[in-house]
Amino acid sequence: MRRIAPVLIVALAVCSPALAARLPSHAGRAVLPLRSTSLDGHRDALVELSSRPGGGARFALGAVGARLISPQLSLWRLPSVGARHLLPALRAQGLVRAVTPDVPIRPLRATADTCLDPICPQEWWRAAVGADRWTSPGPGVPVTMIDSGTDLSHEEFAARPETTALNTQTISPAYSEELHGTATTSVVGAPANGVGIVGIYPQAKLQVWDASPGGVLTVGDEIAGLSAAVTHGPGVINLSLGGTDRLPVEEHAILSAFANGSLVVAAAGNSRQQGSPPSYPASFSHVLTVGATNERGRATYFSTASAKMDLAAPGQDIPVAIPQSFNPSGPPYGVFDGTSFSAPLVSGAAAAVWTLRPTLTNTQLFEVMRRSTRGGAWNRNTGYGILDAPAAITRAAPAPDPQEPNEDVYLIKPGGLSHAGHPALTTRALRHATIAAHVVRGDDSEDVYRAYLPAKGKLVVNVRTSANVDLEVWGRRTRTVFERGRAAKRDLLGLSAHAGSRPERVVVHARGIAQYVYVDVFLGKKPREAGYKLSLSTARR
């Protein structure tokens, strides 16, 4: 006879202090709504609105130079002077969710040398990632490069088909980083046209977004690029940029892009010699984080080590195209180092694989790209291993991971990251539900779902798992499943945290209040990942 795991039954709104006091630790971090911060010393502000502004508010926004940069987030950029003048009126109408400054970020580049031969035959990376063992497809899934401007007059791009500028491209030799966009874009899609270099996906459908129109790349321009990419449909988005500040507005924009079906790829950073501080956006969840390797197949001296590392690709001595204005007396090419050039190799390969395997979801493609690599056990330097493009074409895909991103309440509730939120697994009419999903440390260690608890009845939650996961159920007032102290005593309805792969089970009894609650399945101690089956049922008394 099978032994049934002990049941934790907690009555609604009377969670015991002892229960809240012994909450298991969570591997992830809270994802919360934006908080208003000071605009002092910043030229521009980012203002998130709770709803679409009416005619009067929209006119007032336009009058102070505001521009809608992300319809998905209802995010506007406007001069800080205008924001200070307008915010009191917008707040009086209940329209303001948050205010944050538009801060600069930077392209990620290490060192560069002038290329002596415009043909740049030394593309050693081709054999290293298997590009010499596959035939990349014709145009299909787009790759959007969000970077400094791309020189579309360059001989690699001037006659290239399937190349679209999503905004005006600007390149100024007055700013050294302005060559960066041309360089990273060439790594993806430089065509096989008999001159210069060849990218990893020569016929890619390229979309370029200039995130530094004034010579300075900012988080607002990055978010505008993410929004533009989403507007043009699901695809691969390359972010060879970053900084050490965890900016909620940037995180929300990236999670929104992922929620809309895109795959986001980011360079891990070039700060190993500075102690490998976390780099964002690479350290956000649901971002395919890419480190750099050298010709010996080892992590480079500059590539940032990270707990969020997914895979690596060549990033040292990479031949690239540069704007002619940066080398007026010589060929418009250079040899560069940096994770900035590793990420485009992964982005281009991912878009080619997705074109060849169009039925994959972005969660499946995410796993295919990092699980098809050459390498041993996961490590902080190269993640699961080095990019292997041919292997990614044939790698068996896991089942789609449902309802991602869903790491916290804000990402799934109506009026949170999206207006509609995620559909509840159980409702007034739907009393039973089963869902299979996967959690992995670093990128997706937490899964939160909505479920209906009838006013007079109970909700039964069961989890069967391949490795150690824990289970919590939280009430309707929960702000984040990372609550502790007084908030947890108020909101936690039940938990189950057995060791190992034993089943978890929570039964929550209602006391006259119908509500949607939050079911949280997350990695326990030790395992790096776990697959699980979640079953829910409601019953009325």
Count of discrete structural domains: 3
Helix fraction bin: 10-25%
| Unreliably modeled segments | 1-15, 113-118
Shape: globular
Label the structural class. Answer: alpha/beta
CATH class of the largest domain: Alpha Beta
Strand content: 25-35%
CATH topology of the largest domain: Rossmann fold
Number of helices: 12
Order of strands across the main sheet: 9-10-8-11-13-14-15
Counting DSSP E segments of at least 2 residues, the number of strands comes to 25
Task: Please provide a written account of the structure.
This protein is α/β, with parallel strands linked by helices and 541 residues long. It contains twelve helices and 25 strands. A seven-stranded parallel sheet has the order 9-10-8-11-13-14-15, sandwiched between helices. Strands 1-23-20-25-18 form a five-stranded mixed sheet, with no helix packed on it. Strands 3-4-2-5 form a four-stranded antiparallel sheet. It is globular and about 80 Å long. It starts with 7 loop residues before the first strand and ends with a strand.
Task: Jot down its keywords.
541 residues, alpha/beta, Jelly Rolls, Alpha-Beta Plaits, Rossmann fold, 3 domains, 7-stranded parallel sheet, 5-stranded mixed sheet, 12 helices, 25 strands, globular, disordered N terminus
